[in-house]
Amino acid sequence: MEYAVFNEQLFDFLRQSPTPYHAVEQMSHRLEAHGFHRLDEAEPWTLEAGCRYYVTRNDSSIIAFQTGSRAPTEAGVRMIGAHTDSPCLRVKPNPELTAKGLYQLGVEVYGGALLNPWFDRDLSIAGRVSYVDREGQVRDALVDFRRPVVTIPSLAIHLDKEANSNRSVNPQTDLPPVLMQSGGDERRPFRDLLRQQLCAQYPGCDVRQVLDYELSLYDTQPPSLVGLQDEFIASARLDNLLSCFIGLQSLLDTDPEQPALLVCNDHEEVGSMSAEGAQGPFLANVLDRWVGADARPQVIARSMMVSADNAHGVHPNYADRYDDNHGPLLNEGPVIKINNNQRYATNSRTAGLYRHISDSLGLPCQSFVVRSDMGCGSTIGPLTAGNLGVRTLDIGVPQFAMHSIREMCGARDGHTLYQVLRRYLALSEVTS
């Protein structure tokens, strides 16, 4: 896939994926268009060699795999992992608030979000809604208002003289967004508004009662190229939908002869401890049903996982926050992430294999090690390595403004990582 086409398709994916549910829906559509067959965890599986399959859990995590023509016990499985969730604001179960004639929503912070950038944005609402239809059946539907419906106004600097020098955000009192004017103290149930949106979004949808929901606020500003020469990408949710897209395209475009797998887990931003998170059994369950529980250790011994999650690019205004020899630059290639305390799962073998592929393609790569006097974040890499015993590489595209409502990365780095991962998925072996 050419560089410009890659970014065009990336932008479309980002626009259509305001929540993990929507991201998994979009990935499912693209997989089916390329011949992947949907599996149901609740049903028996009959898998055939040389075929492609995918399965979802909770509609927010997805695993896609191709069985290949070689037995996994001989060839191993080339795996790529990423996560579908991003830090954001989630709507509370009883969100209705009224003050000074305004209807507001109670929200909860999800993950380690940078909160200040959420103010004064044109925000919308999207997620999953559970409801009862006219026949009394409980059903789910994805909802997306698709236009600005809420905003979080800043307090004027005249009333907060220290806003530019000492501003802190109280998540309980400062973040409730304005939804509409309420007409006094009237508090129309938010679920009634959701019911209206469902009926408008799905003509003919027969909604008797909205039962519950998992809804997020998101910025309606679309992805864009930034810079005098279009050198950069600015968008919401680059961490980590960029890696999901790279992994997906790598799998779609690779030779189907090699056993290969993509897993995109939910809940990485809050620790991954869930049925569909990387600390849960989803990936192990799928591997057992594919290769068999008894054969899994043999398969894992011949396999490798690439955990793709964005890295910290060196910020020119804060260069002192980085190790001088390990400050990745935007558009200078993907970043091998290394931490000797196992916050990243990279070792010399997995890093060496990536460098070998990258060098053979004439493509750049970089390394990141956090300053020795600072703490280090983590990824699904160590969790997956610990759960499965699979050799793992942590790598990612360098970016600025990680966990902000709008993030920034180089316009070339995603395509570079895609080219290397496509070659990696086609390797006949990864063991030595």
UniProtKB/TrEMBL annotation:
Does the keyword Protease feature in the UniProt annotation? Answer: yes
What GO molecular function annotations does the UniProt record carry, in alphabetical order?
A: aminopeptidase activity; metallopeptidase activity; zinc ion binding
Q: Which GO terms describe its cellular component?
A: cytoplasm
A Gene Ontology annotation in the biological process aspect, one of them, is: proteolysis
**Membership in a protein family:** Belongs to the peptidase M18 family.
- According to its UniProt record, the EC number is 3.4.11.-
Q: What's the protein called, per UniProt?
A: M18 family aminopeptidase
NCBIfam families for this protein: PRK02813.1
Q: Does the keyword Oxidoreductase apply?
A: no
InterPro entries according to UniProt: Peptidase_M18, Peptidase_M18_dom2
Task: Write the record's keywords in alphabetical order, separated by commas.
Answer: Aminopeptidase, Hydrolase, Metal-binding, Metalloprotease, Protease, Zinc
Cofactor(s) needed by this chain: Zn(2+)
Q: Record the organism.
A: Tamilnaduibacter salinus
